[in-house]
Design a protein that fits this description.
It is an enzyme of class 2 (transferase). Its EC number is 2.1.1.74. This is Methylenetetrahydrofolate--tRNA-(uracil-5-)-methyltransferase TrmFO. Its main location: cytoplasm. There is one protein chain. By secondary structure, the protein is an alpha+beta fold. The protein folds into two domains: about 270 residues, FAD/NAD(P)-binding domain, CATH 3.50.50.60; about 160 residues, Elongation Factor Tu (Ef-tu), domain 3. It contains 13 helices and 17 strands. A six-stranded mixed beta sheet has the order 6-2-1-7-17-16, covered by helices on one side. Strands 10-11-12-13-9-14 form a six-stranded antiparallel beta sheet. The chain is globular.
Amino acid sequence: MQPVNIVGAGLAGSEAAWQVARAGVPVILHEMRPTVATFAHKTGDCAEMVCSNSFRSDDDVMNAVGQLHWEMRAAGGLIMAMADRHRLPAGGALAVDRDAFSAAVTETLRAEPLVRIVAGEITELPTDGNWIVATGPLTSDALAGAIRRVTGTEALAFFDAIAPIVHAETIDMSVAWEQSRYDKGESDAERRAYINCPMTRDEYEAFIDALLAADKTEFREGETAGYFDGCLPIEVMAERGRETLRHGPMKPVGLTNAHKPQEKAYAVVQLRRDNALGTLYNIVGFQTKMKYGAQTQVFRMIPGLQNASFARLGGIHRNSFLNSPTLLDDRMRMRQRPNLRFAGQVTGVEGYVESAAMGLLAGRMAAAQAKGAELAPPPFTTAMGALVNHITGGAEAKTFQPMNVNFGLFPPLDDARGGRRGRKDRYPAYTQRAKDDFSAWLAAQ
C-alpha cells in the first residue's frame, strides 16, 4: 500500500498522521524543524504550541469549541487525548502544559509502527502520490512560493501576535489574587485557575497612554497590517477606543478582589497558568507587537507585575493562508492538484483545535483514498462539518478571512429544536444535534 505523505508536524499534521496510521495505512510525516527553524518555534517536536497553551472552552453543551473537542475525542483524536493527559486548571477552559503535551504527541507518533518521521524541508508541491500539506501559518518561503506558482494567486495573510509569559514567583500576590471569572469550575483548582491584577481608573488610563505611545515593531516591505479580529494585538485594540480593552481581555466582570472585596476594579488583567509546575503564567489576550524594551516597561505598570520577570516576551509574525473557497473541494483537495489535500491553519481556520480538527478530517479522507474509497465530510450540522463547509465553499471568497468555529457556521434550527428561543435553549439544541449527526457519520465508516 502506498503511504500517505504529510508535510508539517504541527497540530494538524500530527493529528492527520495519527488518523492515517490508525486506519492501517503507512504514513511519512515530513517536518523541516529543527533543520530549518522558524522564529516562533523553539523545538523540533511535533505539535509545538506557539501562541498560547489554551484550547479554549471545554463546554460541549453551550460552546461550539467545546463541541469540537467532543467530536475530536469521539473520533479518537491524538491531540485531544494528549491535551486531556496534560491539562492544567483553567476554569471552564482546556489548558495544557505545552512542553509535556508536545513531547507526548512526539513520543506517541514515534512509537507508532506505521508512522515514519522524516526531517527536512519540502520545497515543491508533488505532482503525484497521496499528500496532505499541513504547514500552518508559518509555511516556509520556498513552499509558499510553490503554492503561489500552482494556484496563480497570492496567499492571503494576516498578522498573529504572541502573548508574553511571566515567572509566577515574580507576581506580587499581595496585590493580585487567584480566581476564575464567576468562580467557574468544579474543583477548587479550577475556581482558582487565573491570577488577577486589578486596576483603578487612573491606572487604566495611564496604561492605555503608555500602550499607545510605546515603540512598535515595524512591518517589512510589502506587508500590511491585516489583523485577524480574534487575535488582535492589545495596542491595536486600544487604538480602536480607550474603553475597548476594558470590554475585552481586561474586563472586570465576574471577579472579586480577595484583598479588597468591597472595591470594584475598573479593569482586570488576567494571567493563565502555562505549565504543570505552575511556575509560568501567560497574560491572557495580551498579544502584542510592541518592541521588547517597551513591553517590559508597559507591562510592569500593571499592579502586581511591577517586578515581573518575563520568560518570554510577545512577538508578531505573518500568517499565510489559502483562499480555500476558490482552491479546495469539500474533500479538502486542491482542485488543480487533486493528489494534494490541505489541512490546518493554512486552509483559513483559526485556532489550535480548529487546525487539529482539519488535520483529523484530512487524515481520514486520505486514508480512505489509500484504500480505494471516498469519505464524505461530516454533515455541516456538526462542528467539524460546519468548519470544512465554511472554508471550502460556505464563505464568500472575495472577503474570506480566518475563522474560529462558532454557532454562526451551523445551519439554523427549526422551531421545534430552538428556533427563536434564547441561547440557553438554542445552544444545547445545536450541540445535541451535532453529537447525534457526528456519531452517525462515524458509525457509517
